[in-house]
Design brief:
heterodimer; A: alpha/beta; 11-stranded mixed β-sheet; 15 helices; 15% strand; B: mainly alpha; two-stranded antiparallel ribbon; 4% strand; flat
């Protein structure tokens, strides 16, 4: 039996039946990481000592008979989430030597369940990017084709699950950072409703958009992790009480909304950038849902065309404020200089990478005197329009189906010199964050490329606020059919 | 197209040191991105803007809570310190 290929549920069953121990399981993953990560670069560092200690603890718990589904099951954590006593770099040079002083709330919850933490995964620096190439420590490669990116920003978290380097992982999603790499790597990823999961201990990017969520091999596993990490936390005032209840919703009789703005127009006017092959795979998933008894309804999200611009103004504005804390005084890189201003200038100038600087600049510009009304304030208005669009849509439909990305995994280097073309990959994911909705990426098929590689394509399932249960119930039914 | 001086002004506001080469690239990238943002000009305005992203979260009571358990770790993270104090360069 290949232990590293098991799902959470299968690993749990094996541990329960004493077919193997958590130490066996942990060693299997560690050896898989050693074997494959030189090529993939999914991990920034492996926490072997911590993992082995946790595995031994878990085995004791299992022997005692009182244990949960995550006990002894090894996972990987995006390196923007604090794990006490371990380094946390956010893939930035500015935090190269930073050690986390406490556990993020999600980590506390996982530890309480007896989870095993294998290591911290690679990402775009400060979670800013869609390809993983903005990591200061090199891009994560796609396990399906190593000449391609794994997607971002939770690139290592998605690649690690796809390459059997971890049973599941945690990522964070500000504008698609869980869903996009999940789609590119062919795994399942959930961006929860804003407020469903505590953000305490997640290095902040865009605070009104950020959410932590799980990445796993199947929908059932996503549900197991989501149940554990969700809920109100007094350390995050935006988090809410959450009682997950399994939903009876199924495809039969389900009303699925398909936004007309996201697809090719009837007269052959194609949405700029969506690959026909991607559209075919998504259309096929919708057709299969219809065959299983779902009602498909074309809906309109009229403000869609403004979503990307709106998102990049709000996200960068919030980022420019959040990243002001990296000033060389309290933690992180500090460049020696004659006066205080130079400490700031040099520490930030030397510590941040190109994309982070670009976003700080865009955000500072959008918030600056003379431009605030035309950019930041206007974006807030548009954000309201986008929220209204979804609210109206969910009066008529239960869930919305659409692509995660207009393209499958791109080649490494393909868009890195053209930031705007990189941003355009987020066209279908950012609206969900602006509206605070939950969204899931489900593997829907493979696109056969000219060079013969098969690249995964993800279907995005969007639900109304706090209706993760509906998304998961339908996704579970659908994953058997795709 | 935004000017080099504008780029320098924004960098100063952001407390970001940029090299001459970075300023040139930034000028080009920012111009393209800000041009794209102009799309928003043709969007209508909503009747009203509801509160920010609050889906039921609650602020905690405004009460001082001790974080003594991680005090030492927090101070240890500072690059320049003396005893229990974080050192900052004189600003006067």
């Amino acid at each position: 039996m290949d232990l590293a290929s098991l799902t959470i549920k299968q690993a749990h069953e094996g541990l329960k039946k004493k077919e193997f121990s958590s130490v066996d399981l942990t060693k299997a993953y560690l050896s898989q990481i050693k074997k494959s990560d030189k090529d993939l670069n999914a991990f920034l560092f492996v926490t072997e000592k911590l993992a082995m200690a946790q595995a031994e603890e878990a085995d004791k718990k299992i022997t005692s008979g009182k244990f949960g589904e995550l006990t002894g099951v090894p996972c990987a954590i995006k390196d923007a989430i604090l794990v006490e006593g371990q380094k946390c770099t956010s893939a930035s040079k500015i935090l190269e030597n930073y050690t986390a002083p406490y556990d993020a709330t999600v980590i506390k919850k996982l530890k309480a369940e007896g989870a095993v933490i294998l290591g911290k995964t690679n990402l775009d620096e400060f979670a800013m990017g869609g390809s993983g190439e903005n990591s200061a420590y090199g891009a994560t490669k796609n396990p399906h084709d190593k000449t391609r990116v794994a997607g971002g920003s939770s690139s290592g978290s998605a690649a690690a699950v796809a390459a059997n380097q971890a049973c599941y992982s945690l990522g964070s999603d500000t504008g698609g950072s869980i869903r996009l790499p999940s789609s590119f790597c062919g795994v399942v990823g959930l961006k929860p409703t804003y407020g469903a999961v505590s953000r305490y201990g997640l290095i902040a990017f865009g605070s009104s958009l950020d959410q932590i969520g799980p990445i796993a091999k199947n929908v059932e596993d996503i549900k197991i992790v989501f149940k554990v990490i969700s809920g109100r936390d007094k350390m995050d005032a935006t988090s809410v009480d959450y009682n997950f209840k399994d939903s009876e919703t199924g495809l039969k009789g389900l009303k699925i909304g398909v936004p007309k703005e996201y697809f090719a127009m009837p007269a052959g006017r194609q949405v700029k950038g969506i690959e026909p092959e991607v559209e075919k795979i998504i259309r096929n998933a919708i057709k299969k849902s219809e065959d299983a008894g779902a009602e498909i309804e074309e809906i309109s999200l009229p403000s869609s065309e403004y979503a990307l611009a709106c998102y990049y103004i709000i996200a960068t504005s919030e980022a420019s404020a959040n990243l002001a804390r990296f000033d060389g005084i309290r933690y992180g890189l500090s460049e020696p200089a004659k006066n205080l201003l130079d400490v700031y200038l040099k520490s930030k100038g030397h510590g941040f990478g190109a994309e982070v600087k670009r976003r700080i600049m865009i955000g500072t510009y959008s918030l600056s005197s003379g431009y605030y009304d035309a950019y930041y304030k206007k974006a807030q208005e548009v954000r309201q329009l986008i929220k209204n669009d979804f609210a109206k849509a969910f009066e008529k439909v239960d869930l919305i189906f659409c692509p995660v990305s207009p393209v499958p995994a791109i080649k490494i280097g393909e868009r890195i010199n053209d930031p705007l073309s990189m941003y355009l990959m987020d066209i279908y994911t950012v609206s969900v964050n602006l509206a605070g909705l939950p969204g899931l990426s489900l593997p829907a098929g493979r696109q056969v490329c000219q060079d013969g590689t098969n690249l995964p394509v993800g279907l995005q399932i969007i639900g109304n606020h706090f209706e993760e249960n509906k998304i998961l119930a339908v996704a579970e039914e659908l994953e058997k059919m795709l | 197209m935004i000017s080099k001086d504008e780029v320098k002004h924004i960098a100063k506001l952001a407390r970001l040191e940029l090299t001459e080469k970075e300023i040139g690239k930034m000028q080009k990238d920012l111009s393209a991105i800000l041009d794209y943002f102009n799309l928003l000009k043709k969007s209508p305005s909503p009747a009203k803007i509801l509160s920010q992203q609050n889906l039921g979260g609650q602020a905690r009571e405004d009460k001082v809570v001790s974080s003594h358990d991680i005090r030492d770790e927090l101070i240890a993270a500072a690059p320049d310190k003396k005893d229990d104090y974080i050192k900052v360069k004189a600003i006067l």
